[in-house]
Write a structure and sequence with these properties.
- It is built from eleven helices and twelve strands.
- By secondary structure, it is of the alpha/beta class.
- It has three domains: 133 residues, Globin-like, CATH 1.10.490; 92 residues, Elongation Factor Tu (Ef-tu), domain 3 (Beta Barrel), CATH 2.40.30.10; 121 residues, Nucleotide-binding domain of ferredoxin-NADP reductase (FNR) module (Rossmann fold, 3-Layer(aba) Sandwich).
- The protein has a six-stranded antiparallel beta sheet. A six-stranded parallel beta sheet has the order 10-9-8-7-11-12, with helices on both faces.
- A hairpin with a 4-residue loop joins strand 1 and strand 2.
- Helix 2 crosses helix 5 and helix 4 packs across helix 6.
- The relative contact order is 0.10.
- Keywords: 2Fe-2S, Heme, Iron, Iron-sulfur, Metal-binding, NAD, NADP, Oxygen transport, Transport.
- It catalyses: 2 nitric oxide + NADPH + 2 O2 = 2 nitrate + NADP(+) + H(+); 2 nitric oxide + NADH + 2 O2 = 2 nitrate + NAD(+) + H(+).
- InterPro entries: Cbr1-like_FAD-bd_dom (IPR008333), FAD-bd_FR_type (IPR017927), FNR_nucleotide-bd (IPR039261), Globin (IPR000971), Globin-like_sf (IPR009050), Globin/Proto (IPR012292), OxRdtase_FAD/NAD-bd (IPR001433), Riboflavin_synthase-like_b-brl (IPR017938).
- In the C-terminal section; belongs to the flavoprotein pyridine nucleotide cytochrome reductase family. Belongs to the globin family.
C-alpha cells in the first residue's frame, strides 16, 4: 500500500494543475462510451466537474489511511445512489478516468502510474459498491419546506420535513440537496443545523454565493410548500461522547450550521465539559445565528459564545479575524476542536491549532465551498 500511495501522489502532481482538462476528458469519454449516462447528470456540469475532482483528491490523499479511506468510499457509494448509479456504470467510469489521466499526463505518464491508478480504482469501485449495497435506506428523501426565513440579503434558514420517515443522522453531518422544481439533477451539500429532533425536521443554513445555482434557488426562489430531495447524510465531524475533554468550536459564515447542531446535542447531555464557541463574520449583520446560540448559553453555564467581526470598527465585541481571536483565548491543547467555514478559514484554523500543539486526532473540520 505504501508504494501504491507513493505512485498515486507522485502521478497526481503531474496533472493536478490541469483539473479542468481531466474533468473534460473524463465526462466526454464516459458519455461517448455510454450516452445513456448523460441523463443522470445536470444540464450545467461545472459544479459536477468540481465534485469529481474533489473525490479524486480525497481518495489520493487518504489512500495510505485504510480506515478513513474505507469510511469515505463507503459513504461516497451510499451517496451516489441518488444518481441512480448501477454496478455496470463503475467499469465505464473507471475506463474514462484512466483515459483522462493518461491523456492529461502525456509523455510523463508511465506504465507504473497507469497500473497504480488501475489498482486504486478497483479498490475505490469495490468499496463504493459495498457501501451502496449495505445501505437499506432510500437513495434520497422527499422533504417539504415548512419554514423559510431570510436573514439578510443572501442568507436563508430553511426548515424541512422528510415525507417518508425520519432521516437518520448525527449532529455535525451534512446532506446533499436537490431542488427538482428549479435545478433538477443538480445536488449541493449543506450541513444540518440542528441535532436530531423528535419530529424529524431538518434545519439548513444557505448563503446564495455568487452565481450558485442551487444556493440561489434555495435562498431566493424556494417557498414554503416546495419539495426538496435530501440524500443520505455524510461526514465525520461528530461528537465523541466518550471524551471528557473540553470543547472548542470555530465557525465562519454558514459554517455555523454544524456547530449549532453540535452545541444542541451537547445541551442534551453535557454537564462537565466547558464549551467555547467562536463565531466570525465580516460585520455584525452577518452574525445571523447568534440568537439561538445565546439562548442556549443562558440556559447552560458551561457554554460560552464569543462573536467576532473582522471589518466592523464599531462592533462592541471581539474584532479581528476569527482565527486570531480564538488564538488569544488559548491554549487549546487539551480540547476537542471543531472547525467549520470557508476553506480559507479552515486552513487558517488548522495552522493555529497545530501551532498550539493540538493533536490532529482531536481536530474535526468541515470546509464550506458549496454554491
Amino acid at each position: 500500500m505504501d508504494n501504491l500511495a507513493q505512485l498515486l501522489k507522485e502521478s497526481w502532481t503531474l496533472v493536478e494543475d490541469r483539473r479542468d482538462r481531466i474533468a473534460g476528458y473524463f465526462y466526454a469519454r464516459m458519455f461517448l462510451s455510454d450516452p445513456a449516462l448523460r441523463t443522470l447528470f445536470p444540464v450545467q456540469m461545472d459544479g459536477q466537474r468540481d465534485r469529481l475532482l474533489e473525490a479524486i483528491v480525497t481518495a489520493v490523499h487518504t489512500i495510505d489511511d485504510p480506515e478513513n479511506l474505507d469510511d469515505y468510499l463507503r459513504s461516497l457509494g451510499r451517496d451516489h445512489r441518488k444518481y441512480h448509479v448501477q454496478p455496470a456504470h463503475y467499469d465505464t467510469m473507471g475506463s474514462a478516468l484512466l483515459t483522462a489521466l493518461r491523456e492529461t499526463g502525456g509523455e510523463r505518464w508511465t506504465v507504473e502510474y497507469d497500473q497504480a491508478w488501475r489498482d486504486a480504482y478497483q479498490v475505490i469501485a469495490e468499496r463504493m459498491q459495498a457501501g451502496a449495497a449495505d445501505d437499506t435506506n432510500p437513495p434520497f428523501w422527499h422533504a417539504e419546506v415548512i419554514g423559510h426565513e431570510r436573514r439578510g440579503s443572501d442568507i436563508a434558514v430553511l426548515t424541512c420535513r422528510p415525507l417518508q420517515h425520519h432521516l437518520p443522522y448525527r449532529a455535525g453531518q451534512y446532506v446533499s440537496v436537490e431542488v427538482p422544481r428549479y435545478q433538477p439533477r443538480l445536488w449541493r451539500t449543506y450541513s444540518i443545523a440542528n441535532a436530531p429532533r423528535e419530529d424529524g425536521t431538518l434545519e439548513l443554513h444557505v448563503r446564495a454565493a455568487g452565481a450558485g445555482w442551487v444556493s440561489s434557488a434555495l435562498v431566493r426562489r424556494v417557498k414554503v410548500g416546495d419539495l426538496l430531495r435530501v440524500a443520505a447524510p455524510m461526514g465525520a465531524m461528530t461528537l465523541d461522547r466518550s471524551s471528557t475533554r473540553d470543547v472548542l468550536c470555530v465557525a465562519g459564515g454558514v459554517g455555523l450550521a454544524p456547530i449549532k447542531a453540535l452545541t444542541e446535542e451537547l445541551a442534551g447531555y453535557n454537564r462537565t465539559r466547558w464549551v467555547h464557541v467562536f463565531v466570525g463574520a465580516a460585520g455584525r449583520d452577518d452574525l445571523y445565528g447568534l440568537t439561538e446560540l445565546c439562548r442556549l448559553a443562558a440556559e447552560h453555564p458551561w457554554l460560552s459564545i464569543i462573536p467576532a467581526c473582522s471589518d466592523d470598527p464599531g462592533f462592541p465585541g471581539e474584532r479581528g479575524e476569527i482565527c486570531d481571536v480564538f488564538a488569544r483565548y488559548g491554549p487549546w491543547t487539551a480540547h476537542d476542536c471543531y472547525v467549520s467555514g470557508s476553506a480559507t478559514l479552515v486552513r487558517s484554523a488548522l495552522r493555529t491549532l497545530a501551532a498550539d500543539d493540538v493533536p490532529p486526532e482531536n481536530i474535526r473540520y468541515d470546509a464550506f465551498g458549496d454554491l
